[in-house]
Design brief:
The chain has 10 helices and 16 strands. Strand 2 and strand 3 form a beta hairpin. It is an alpha/beta fold. The protein has 2 domains: about 90 residues, 2-Layer Sandwich (Alpha-Beta Plaits), CATH 3.30.70; about 220 residues, Vaccinia Virus protein VP39 (Rossmann fold, 3-Layer(aba) Sandwich). InterPro entries: Ribosomal_L11_MeTrfase_PrmA (IPR050078), Ribosomal_PrmA_MeTrfase (IPR004498), SAM-dependent_MTases_sf (IPR029063).
Length: about 325
Amino acid sequence: MAHAQAQKVWRVEIRVPRDVVAQFEGALEPYCQVITWYVEDDAASWRMEGFCADAPSDDALAAALSRAAKANAVPCPAFAVQCQQSDDWVAENQKQFPPFSVGRFFIHGTHFDAAAPVGKMAMCINPGAAFGSGQHATTAGCLRALDDLAKERKFARPLDMGCGSGILAMAMARLWRVRVIAVDIDPIAIPVTVENAGRNALGRYVRAFQSHGYRSRGVCRGGPYDLIVSNILARPLMKMANALECHLAPGGVAVLSGLLERDTSRVLEAYRRRGLFLMRKISMDGWDTLVLSRPGGAPWGRPSPPGACPRPDGSFRASIPGKK
């Protein structure tokens, strides 16, 4: 029997400052079906790789990278394009996503067809999605924090700020069987989250929509939240400290991740200035996950009324239909 012709894949590689990874990811997205990034010894510079089904235009790539560099006031990175051959690129991708466990969670890809371990909460994630599968230490740290929190209390109104693939929103829905709001600035994340939630029979629990941070009406109407999870990067987490505190109910908990160990003290100080205090820190592979709490109210009591809007002092005023 004749063998199928090997599939060609083009790999684009660049190296950029870690603070602008998201912006250069956006520059590569029109040309690459899958984008990954790696932290190496030099934490100030991250290596990014994009994989393309068709040969990208060098001129188009150069122009896109130049625009991103100019918009963010950084030097334009050099790029390299290499053609690779794989007999089965999908199979190779699946090999990079073996099933794994974090706490009580068992995460696997769509290619996994065996039974989940006894006592584990299985969640199926599409390994082809250009978002977190849960393997990275930042997502794994959040999953571990959520698993620990579930042993202590129940949450009624969680928010996943920067949902990506939706894995953390699904974890909260699975743990507490409550409606979870999942938002991301990247519009591509929303259908990915919806698809993954549906695949795991959690579609009725996860409400996903695009939002630029906490600014959207949907985020305001859904709060205040007794649990906010945000797995993004250090700089946006610091910028969002005030908004998070304003949308977090008294006695609420925030789980923050995406922090290199050297960034942790700066991020923690930003939230301490807003009155939050550190409950615990989870360190994995050079990355930290912070579990913070906002004082006030009874941590184990009933949450504030749905749709409450934050006042400047951090207290809440309930929204009444027809009233301003």
